[in-house]
Amino acid sequence: MGIKIKDFGKILTIVGVLILFTGIIYLFDRKLLLLGNTIFLTGLVLMIGLSDLKSFVFSSGRTKIFLIVMFGIVIMLIGYNVIGLVIELIGLLALLGIYLPVVIRFLHSIPLINNIFNISQLRSFSEWFSPDDRLPL
């Protein structure tokens, strides 16, 4: 049963990211951004698990970064969508940035997305974020 909940969490996380991108495309539509945030965070909790998420967030130095992410969401609730989204993305990048090389490596293994990363500007970007000698996992 735990595997099914994690799979559902992965689906919710992907759907939340897609709704966030849709909210950005529709000129930072507040309702879509908040819906995307809610679904993304719910999927993250289901995917990681509540106890593991607590230990990840409340470990050394990550509590302040998590509060920055929540502050970005509150700013979006107030009505300043662009500022709130920028604050939230900076916080998420600081919180989950250590896993970025793993994500880029995974994206390189997908055939169609690998062709996109072969564009010269994106190739240098992905090589800078994902060198072969420093993967965290």
Summary of the model, kept short:
The protein is mainly alpha-helical.
Q: What helical percentage do the residues reach?
A: over 70%
Number of strand elements: 0
> Which range does the strand content fall in?
under 5%
- Arithmetic mean pLDDT: 82
Given the C-alpha coordinates, what overall shape results? globular
Biggest sheet statistics: none
**Structural class of the helix and strand makeup?**
mainly alpha
Write the layout of secondary structure elements.
Elements: H1 2-25, H2 30-48, H3 50-57, H4 62-78, H5 81-96, H6 100-108, H7 111-117, H8 120-129
Helix pairs in contact: 1-2, 4-5
Task: Describe this entry's structure for a reader.
The structure is a single chain. The chain is 80% helix and 0% strand. α4 runs antiparallel to α5. The chain contains eight helices and no strands. It is mostly helical. The protein has a domain of 95 residues.
What are the main properties of this structure?
transmembrane helix, globular, 137 residues, Golgi transport protein, Got1, membrane, mainly alpha
